[in-house]
Write a structure and sequence with these properties.
The protein is 28% helix and 19% strand. By secondary structure, the protein is of the alpha+beta class.
């Protein structure tokens, strides 16, 4: 095993230690293969990460070894890689890496970072998201085809609300749809808009789509995970390699590709050829940010006409005003407690 080599990435030279270390034993992909992949899709992943505080999902020994999420910038960060200061729900702060060039992505890959989890904000304003992210998450008994069908129902709803969605595979069984927005609203407001969109989608296809936070209520439906818009919740970036045996990647798609594309079509080996042929199909994503006025009016109408308020936050978040009790329905029934607000799914 070679001890190290140097890669030229743009105008930088990045040192890669143990380039022959196997990261994906089933496919034989090495750390060097990972680095070369990120060089090949450099323009695309930098577009997805630029100026965004980013959590690194690291597998220093490869997918079969131990892993961890690194929120704070690693030690010995080169001075040419900027950081952004974000605040967690607890009120604590951290400086996270902002990969603004392909060399920064490769530098992180050298640390065993497979997947990049950017915040939906820019480092110049970390309190106002510029993306609303919709996660279509298949539940047991459903699969990718069901997520595709849900995405097909989501698109016209977004059109009605004056929103433009940009779909991508999750790298697993689900689909993500990102909506670029004007950075004018806070995290709670963006989450409120996401809940309203999810509820309307659920109303239109209740047998296939759910907003139920508790797994026991979801059934065999696609869960619209509205809490991916909560502070400190992130989604794998476009072009990120996912830590699964076959090295799939989160692939940006055009809407006309969604019905036919399959997650297994896109991996560490195949994506560079696609990128060389079609480029970054989401390159124009940030050019026309959308407004959330119509989605927030939908949220107001839900509350005013249907009594639908907030939904539960993740368990590590402080209790929010107006949030329903964080008690599983089966336990609430047993204790005689009554849930307030939210959707029955």
């Amino acid at each position: 095993m070679a001890n190290a080599l140097e890669l030229t990435v743009g105008e930088r030279t990045v040192r890669l230690s143990n380039p022959d270390r196997v990261y994906f034993p089933e496919r034989g992909f090495t750390k060097l293969d990972l680095a070369r992949y990120y060089i090949a899709v450099g323009d695309g992943i930098v577009r997805a990460l630029k100026d965004r505080p980013t959590t690194l999902e690291r597998y220093p020994e490869g997918v079969g070894g131990e892993s961890f999420f690194q929120k704070r910038a690693p030690k010995h960060l080169p001075d040419w890689i900027p950081t952004g200061r974000i605040s967690f729900p607890s009120g604590r702060h951290a400086d996270e890496i902002c990969p603004n060039e392909a060399a920064a992505v490769v530098w992180a890959a050298n640390l065993g970072c497979l997947t990049f989890h950017p915040w939906p904000v820019r480092r110049s304003d970390t309190e106002h998201p510029d993306e609303l992210r919709i996660d279509l998450d298949p539940q047991p008994g459903t699969g990718y085809a069901d997520a595709v069908r849900a995405a097909g129902e989501l698109r016209p709803l977004l059109d009605e609300l004056g929103l433009v969605g940009w779909p991508k595979t999750s790298g697993g069984r689900g689909l993500h749809v990102f909506v670029p927005i004007v950075p004018e609203w806070t995290f709670p407001q963006v989450r409120r808009a996401a809940i309203a969109i999810a509820r309307e989608l659920e109303r239109r296809a209740p047998e296939r789509i759910t907003t139920a936070w508790w797994k026991e209520e979801r059934g065999e439906r696609i869960f619209v995970d509205y809490n991916q818009t909560a502070r400190d919740r992130t989604i794998a970036s476009a072009y990120s390699v996912r830590p699964r045996p076959l090295a799939p990647v989160s692939a940006p798609l055009r809407w006309d590709e969604v019905p036919e594309a399959m997650p297994e079509d896109f991996d560490l080996a195949s994506m560079p050829a696609r990128f060389a042929t079609v480029g970054d199909v989401h390159a124009a994503m940030g050019e026309r940010p959308c407004r959330l006025d119509a989605a927030l009016e939908l949220a107001d109408r839900d509350e005013r006409e249907h009594g639908l308020g907030d939904l539960p936050y993740p368990p590590d978040h402080p209790k929010a005003e107006g949030e329903p009790p964080r008690v599983q329905p089966s336990r609430a029934k047993g204790s005689g407690r009554v849930r307030r607000g939210g959707s029955s799914g």
